[in-house]
Each structure stands twice: as structure tokens, then as C-alpha cells.
Amino acid sequence: MGLAATEPLLDNGDSRSSCDYNGSESDDPEAVLFDADQQLTDDGTVAPLISLRRLISRGGRGEDAGHGGPYSPNPARDLNPPLPVYVVIHRIRRLVVAAIDDSYTLEELRAPRLDRLVVRPLVDRLYNPNDPATVYALLANRIQFLRPRSHELLQQTINESRAILCELLAIRILRRFHEDHTGRSGLLLLAHILVSGFDPCDAAPDNVLDRRPQWAVQERGGHERKLTGLELAIISESKMFIGSPACQRVVDAVYRGVVVYTPLSFVDILPDHYKHHPVSLYEPRRAAILNHHRLIVPQIRNLIELMHFIVLIALYMLTVTHYGFGKHQHGFRNTYETLFNVFAAGWVLEQFAAIVEHGWEVHSQNLWSFLDITFVFIYAAYGLVRIVELMVSSNAFYAMPVLCTAAPVMLTRIAFTLMPDNIVFIALHAMMRDFTRLTFIAIWCFAGFVMGLLLLARTTGDASLSRDVTWATITKWLLWIWFGLDGTGIERAADFHLILGPTLIITFAFLGNTLFLTILVAMLTNTFSKIITNEAAEIRFRRAVLTFQGVKSDAIFSYPPPFNLLALVIMLPVRWFFGPVVFHHANVAVIRVINAPLLLLIGLWERRKIWARKSKTSRWKNKWRHFAGLNPHAHIQVVFSAEPPPEVMDALEKLDVLREVTAVDRELVARSPRDHSEAVSSSSMRRRKTSDTSSLRRFDSSRFEGADR
Q1: Disulfide-capable partner of 255 in 319, 478, 547, 689 (CB 3.0 to 4.6 Å)?
Q2: If you average pLDDT over every residue of the chain, what do you get?
């Protein structure tokens, strides 16, 4: 995808294998630099001679591992060979079921005693630095435990505890990967764990393969039916896992376009899967100036979609405000309305493609998904009424009032888009689901009161009452009672029946104003309090959803509205008549021509950003340094602006050996001195073990580096 640096993944945590242009190590993930072993491929992808695919396949499941069985690694290289995904999933399920046979809350599982007896032993047993599919298998088991099943109703609370344990194990194991693999190679490994696809039926028996859904799957060069760990975390709403530092590091890198990859989707409207780019790091200075893959970077994609919606709302306002000018002119076709209809049709096509990209379950996690769906329904109703009125009479104007009802939705959607991290909007999105669900239940139940009162009106024998009082009138009276606006329904209750009419009306008033509103307020308050309590986790979760949805696989997203309509009409038939190679080159050429100004601006901006970051003696920087000297506390920041020299670090190491300093996590803080000493001893042993293992891996890596090359 664009210019990608596929850096080698070492088995150790030392990132000094890749050096920048100055020969120094950089912790900035955007400072992706290369060594002499890397070569530029024909599509602008920078790949080392030892590719990521080969290095991953040594210790995990890469593309070379196949789909039919476990990969056989080099025994001299891998002391713990990985297992197939199918085996890992059932191994984790077997261990979790054996470890949890009672209901536990999150606080109880994170308590010192259960953490020492259950969580940490499972982490030590399951963690394999050569197997990146362990986190994926844990999240897959969490989804299965959370899925309600009628024959396991008695064990549903136990399964929820097991799902919580799976999330805790996934967090700890991903943190182990983060601690053992630092630098750019560690970022690449974490990205492979979270956004690289895994097949859950890898090495599964034939009877399991026969039960897979046999829907039409688009060919993706061996990547069909694969899912990513980040997608499973979003589906299972694993907010603690997504909020962990290791996961947020990958999410932030994908959001800014530092980590690039070819996303996996269910169905593409305009598929172009001729080339599949693995998970890699992006280097703007070696990319093509018109790099069309940057159109699906989440940070850039969000700005593009915001511009599209601003154009849509501008055309909408012009269409509605100029409606009266064409109303009194016979045969006049409103130009603004035509432009709005064409652009809105392309925008609706883009939303439909976004829904089928990853499914409604993932798309509904987006903050403004319900607003987009509401506008789509309003626009569809407007289009239907508009077509009917054009067929009946050119002087009919019934469609525009329908379109006017979309104004609250569109203006609210602008606020949601501009402030996606606002906790009020996040809470509103969650409460809207509860409100909609409970409202539908109330409407379904209260429809019986409308039917009962209507039947009473027809059985009284009063012809005028049965003629004047219709179901619409009864519904209006009940709604006024529900919202406390008017008491006409209570006053007219005796007209239906002397006893039964007031009984039904008063019963409805009690149930609607007292019971339903009390339940509704209690549910919304509970939802809001949960979101406010976990505010940071909710914001990180929504950011992860926005990032995951921003990386698009469908080529239709590279065409801005209304050009996507032309692509659907022209490019899709071309794909059926020509081969994948010809279609790919034609598709890329058309995308670059249509988006040439935007791609040129993106390329120049990214190169300018890299140059500005690398420039150490900039004139403006020196001026700002002199200006910052006016701050009386600036000298404190100067002390921490650079790392101490080597002689100072050597002296500090002689004074304090870091291996002797014990870092105890919050959940390991024991309640008794004995528990505290055991926790400290366990943490110290794990730290020493990690240090020894890291040294062994560095020796092993340097030993086999020349042989691999």
C-alpha cells in the first residue's frame, strides 16, 4: 500500500537492527528509515531482502505457511513452534473453561489472589513470542463466550466471567509482546498481531470446514474468510483491550498512516485485489508523488469525508432555499436540485459501501451511523415522492417538505463529525440505542390501547362517535396524554364507555407517564453513568472504530461523489471483460487522474512534515528557543530535552542496577505483607527471566542473521 517499509521482525526487543540516515536509533514511528539490505520494488513498496512475510512465517503464520496445516519452522531457530489457529482457539477455550467454573467480576479477577492463581499462570502458559495468533484466538473465544445460547442459560454468567478472563489474558499477552519487542520492529510486530488477518479454520478438520457458510466469497489471493484481531475486539466491545497502551500504539500508527496494510472486508462493490500489500511501515520520501493508497489513510479519509459532507449540506441548503424560485415557473428544472440529487446519490452509494465493507455490526459502532441511516431513509422517501409527482404533474410540490425534515439530521451530523471524541456525543450514541429499543417496545405494547378504544367506539352504537373518532384521533389523544400536553382524551373517555373508557385511558396514563418514563430515565441514567465512569476507555474505543473503518478495501472509496456513480457504471463492467492486471492499471490511472490535485497536496504535505521534523537547526526553531528563554522554568525542560551522555549513564548504572528495581503493577498490590513479598518475588523473577531471554534472542538473532541473508 503506497510506499511501505517492511522492516524485519526480530525475536528480541532490540530495535538497533534498523538505523536512520544519521545512524542513530529513533523512537518516532514516523521516522521510518532503511538500511542497505532494502530494495525498491516496481509498485513503490520498499521491502528488505529478508521480507516481513518470511520473518513472520518463522515464528507465526505468514503467507508462506499455507492454510492446510501447521507451519514447520526451523528447529534451530524456533524453540517454541506455533500451533495452527484452530488448535490455539480450542486450547484457550479448554484452559479458560477449566480455570473458571464460577461467576467472577472484573474487580475480582484483577484482585491479587486470583491474579496470582489464575491470570498470571495462564499468561505464562499461553505466551509464545513466536506465535502472533494468540491474541486473535483469545478475542475469538471472548466473542463465543459472550454469544447467548438457549441451552446454556444457566451458565451465561459464568461465560461472561470467562469472556472477561479472555480479555485480561489478551491485554497481558499483548503487553508482553510490547515489552519484549521495542522500536520500529516491535511496532511492526504489534501491527501484524492486530491488523493482519487470521483464518480461524486454519488446519481445521474436514467436518468443520464443511460447516462453514458457503456464500459467494470474492477472490483475494488466499486471504478469504480472514478476520483481524482489532475487528474482533470491536465486535466484542473489548474496551479495556483497545484502551491498553500496546493496542493504542498500533491504532495511532494506523490512524496517522505510519502503519499501512491491505484491509480485509466481506464484500467489495468495486473489488481490485490484484496486489495485496502486507502490514508494513510507510516512508513518504520514497513514495510516488501521486500515491493513491493515501486516500484510505484514516486521518486523511476522515477529512475527505468531512469535505464531502460539507459539499452535500451546501447543495442541500441551496436546493431548499431556491425552491420557491422554480415553483412558479412552469417546466423550470432547478439546477441546484439536480446537483444535489446527483451528489447525494453518490454519497448514499458511499455509505452503502461502508456498511457492506465490514458489516452492520461494525458500522453501527460509529458515532454518526444512526444519523447517516436516518438521512438515507429521508432521501429515499424524498426521491420516491419526487418521482411520483413528476409522473403525475409538473406543478406538484410534495417532495420538498419531505426533504426539509433532513435539516436537523444534517446539522447534528456536522457536530458529531467535528467532535468525535466528545463524551457527550459518545453517551448520546449509546443512549440512542437504548431509547430506540425501549420506544419500539412501548409503541408495540401501547398499540393495544388504540385498538381497544377504537373497538369500544364502534360497539357503543353511536354512529357519530364511530364516524368522528378514528384511530388517528385516538393516537393523537394518547400522545398528548403521554407527553402531558393536553387532557382531551381523558375528558372524552366516557364517550367510548361509561366505565371501560376511563379505565383504559387512566391505565394508559399511569403506564405511560409513570412506569415507562421511570424505566426510560433509569436506563439512560445507568448508561450515561457507565460511560462517564469509563470516559477514557470509551474515547479510545470510538477512536479505534473510526480508525478501523477508515482503512477501506473497496476501490469505490477512491472515487469521490459523484464520480463513484460513473465508476460503478463504467469500471465495474470493464472488470468483467478484462483481466485483473488490465483492470488494476486502468483503475489506478483513473483514480490518480481524478484525485491528482488532492494526491499532490497530500504528497507535498507529508514530505514537508518529514523535512520539518528532521531539520534540527531551523531558523524559526532558533527564534522560538530564544523566545522560550524568557520562561523562568525553561531550564527544567532543557535538562530533559536530550538523553544524558554515555559516561553519565555508565556512572548511573554503577550506582543503581535497574534489574534490581522491582516494578509492581497496581493489581499486584497485595493485601498482606506475605502476598506483597510473593508478588514482588514473582515480578522480580519475571523481570530477570525476560532479561535473560532477551539476551538469548539477541545472540540467536546475530547468529542466524547472515545465514538468512
Answers
A1: 547
A2: 75
